[in-house]
Specification:
This protein has 152 residues and is α+β, with helices and mostly antiparallel strands. It is built from three helices and seven strands. The protein has a single domain, classed as Nucleoside Triphosphate Pyrophosphohydrolase, CATH 3.90.79.10. Strands 1, 2, 3, 4, 5, 6 and 7 form a seven-stranded mixed β-sheet that branches. A hairpin with an 8-residue loop joins strand 2 and strand 3 (34-36).
Length: 152
């Protein structure tokens, strides 16, 4: 019996002075350059919140401090025939290490206003990029206490 499992991912939605922190990435050579929130797959043994902190640091060189859960999003990519379950967090960034090497495939991290982002939907890694921004602008916020991490 085959057991189906979605890909669990985490993402950070960081807004500062009306601009959002995004990464420009090339997930596969020749596929093109995409815009995404700092995001990635949950690693074995880490909590969902720890994953969001780690991914943001690896992809942007910023230390991310989650404040709220923005939402939980399910998306099926027909291109790769995979389902993603994304936990998106709202928070702030603190320290920045401009000398830190960014993750493989990440060309740069930069700040974009919502209009710039919405004008480039063809470059979004997934429809979740804009949906998370819309939800942030709508004031969606849920307490981090909704998530519980148990260690064995």
């Amino acid at each position: 019996m085959l057991i189906w499992k979605p890909n669990v991912t985490v993402a950070a939605v960081v807004e500062r002075n009306g601009r959002y922190l995004l990464v420009e990435e090339e997930p596969e050579p020749g596929l093109g350059l995409f815009l995404n929130q700092p995001a990635g797959h949950l690693d074995p043994g880490e909590s969902i919140i720890q994953g969001a902190i780690r991914e943001t640091l690896e992809e942007t060189a910023y230390t991310f401090v989650p404040e709220y859960l923005l939402g939980i999003y399910q998306w099926h990519s027909h291109r790769v025939d995979a389902t993603y379950l994304r936990f998106a967090f709202v928070g702030q960034v603190t320290q920045h290490d401009p000398q830190r090497k960014l993750d493989t495939g990440i060309l740069r991290a930069d700040w974009f206003d919502a209009d710039e982002i919405s004008r480039q939907t063809e470059r979004h890694r997934s429809p979740l990029v804009m949906q998370c921004i819309r939800d942030h602008q709508a004031g969606k916020r849920y307490p981090l206490e909704l998530l519980t991490h148990y260690e064995s």
